[in-house]
Design brief:
This protein has 441 residues and is of the alpha/beta class. Residues 247-257 and 261-272 have low confidence and may be disordered. It has twelve helices and 17 strands. The strands form four sheets. Strands 4-13-12-10-7-5-6 form a seven-stranded mixed β-sheet, sandwiched between helices. Its cofactor is pyridoxal 5'-phosphate. Belongs to the class-III pyridoxal-phosphate-dependent aminotransferase family. Pathway: Cofactor biosynthesis; biotin biosynthesis.
Length: 441
């Protein structure tokens, strides 16, 4: 706050590029923090906002309703995994996690088990910056360690060490040990499926999701999937949890030491015929295509009936829940996913990322490269020390990336018709140049 890093003023965003106030153009390699999957100034999304603002910008969503929110709810039910047919529209991804946690606690309270109020989660996870969400982020390696004295004390189990099935089984054994000992006080297991986002961009086998579902059922603990970063196609399936199906069994066994592309279905040992369905799922980021802040928390009928089946009310009501502008642009964004070949576009991005990033492993500063869907990660041996210098180096290369810790990573606007192979290559070339010239030992 007193010595801020340099910032770069943006004059315009179009397609997959940012135009700075000084006239320079940058390829946007972060999808505006993973949200702008269709790129910037998409005609369909622009039109949806303009049409809706002529009708109404907002009305309270208590005692009133409106067509955009109702339509969005129906679309989410149709797109999601079977059984997730109750939708709560809220303000943001972090709030969707807060809502999910409150749903779990209120479910157990109203069904006669108020002691079940704590949460178990994986280490190295990240679920948001609000207080409930911070409590289930990694307490040591995360960014919230200074707040631990004020946060609810949750339960953590070790993250899979790599993306092999053996590592997933080891993590599941750790989860079993915790559930055996503490299930009477645990409301839910909350986890980011397949990819841990801001906690370190770690990938793991979807076999853990299957084992978690079995364990949660065995010990009467709810299962919450945080798909805020992974939802709406980013990992190669519409939701990352769908990678647990036999068709999308993608993880490698074992994970190579230097290059993990996580696409070796022939090595899968334990196919899963149906996707693992959680009790509650959290959505955000790409929900509105990066245009407006909005989140959604979806739950099964069991959760809905448990909370309100006797006439109770779920105790949460954000002022801007179900906002008509956000609902309208979310409908347009989801319609693009349904009606455009996003899978083919994502596969093309993934192919380029694999081909171009593999050579980074030859650099001494690089520990591992991993690619999954539209996510490309270059993990360094040491954290970036001079963030200002590295950030400026990317700008000089004509690319916008935002490194953190040991990670130089990209999540391009994979469903933008403006994105070309050349854009993705420019991003990977910039990573190579920065590692070579600005992170040299």
């Amino acid at each position: 706050m007193t010595e801020p890093l340099p910032t770069y003023a943006v004059r315009r965003a179009q397609g997959v590029e940012l135009e700075l106030e000084d006239g320079r153009t940058l390829v946007e390699g972060m999808s505006s923090w993973w949200a702008a999957l269709h790129g910037f100034r998409h005609p369909a999304l622009d039109a949806a906002l303009k049409e809706q603002v002529d009708k109404m910008a907002h009305v309270m969503f208590g005692g009133l309703t409106h067509e955009p929110a109702a339509t969005l709810g129906k679309m989410l039910v149709d797109m999601s995994m079977p059984g997730l047919d109750k939708v709560f529209l809220c303000d943001s991804g972090s709030v969707s996690v807060e809502v999910a946690m409150k749903m779990a606690v209120q479910f157990w309270f109203t069904t006669g088990k108020p002691a079940k109020s704590k949460f178990v989660t994986l280490r190295n996870g990240y679920h948001g910056d609000t207080f409930g969400a911070m409590s289930v982020c990694d307490p040591v390696n995360g960014m919230h360690s200074m707040f631990q004295g004020s946060l609810a004390k949750q339960v953590f189990v070790d993250t899979p060490s790599d993306c092999s099935e053996a590592a997933a089984l080891e993590a599941a054994a750790g989860l079993r040990a915790v559930l055996e000992e503490r299930h009477e006080e645990l409301a839910a297991f909350i986890v980011e499926p397949v990819v841990q986002g801001a906690g370190g961009m770690r990938f793991y086998s979807p076999l853990l999701l299957k084992k978690a579902r079995e364990l949660c059922d065995e010990f009467d603990v709810l299962l919450i999937f945080d798909e805020i970063a992974t939802g709406f196609g980013r990992t190669g399936t519409l939701f990352a949890a769908e990678q647990s199906t036999e068709q999308f069994k993608p993880m490698c066994t074992p994970c190579p030491a230097e290059v993990c592309t996580c696409r070796h279905p022939e090595q899968a040992q334990e196919p899963v015929s149906e996707p693992v369905v959680p009790d509650i799922i959290c959505l955000g980021k790409a929900l509105t295509g990066g245009y407006m802040t909005m989140g959604a928390t979806m739950a099964t009928d069991r959760i809905s009936q448990g909370i309100s089946g006797t006439g109770g009310v779920f105790m949460h009501g954000p002022t801007f829940m179900g906002n008509p502008l956000a609902s309208a642009v979310a409908i347009a964004s989801l319609s693009l996913l349904v009606n455009e070949p996003w899978g083919m576009r994502l596969a093309a991005v993934e192919d380029v990322l694999k081909a171009e990033m593999e050579s980074l492993t030859d650099l001494a500063q690089v520990k591992q490269v991993r690619v999954l869907g539209g996510i490309g990660v270059c993990e360094l041996h040491e954290p970036v020390k001079d963030m200002a210098r590295v950030q400026n180096a990317f700008v000089e290369q004509g690319v916008w990336l935002r490194p953190f810790g040991k990670l130089l990573y990209t999540m391009p606007c994979f469903n933008s018709p403006a994105l070309t192979d050349e854009h993705v290559v420019k991003i990977t070339d910039a990573i190579r140049a920065v590692v070579t010239n600005d992170l040299a030992e």
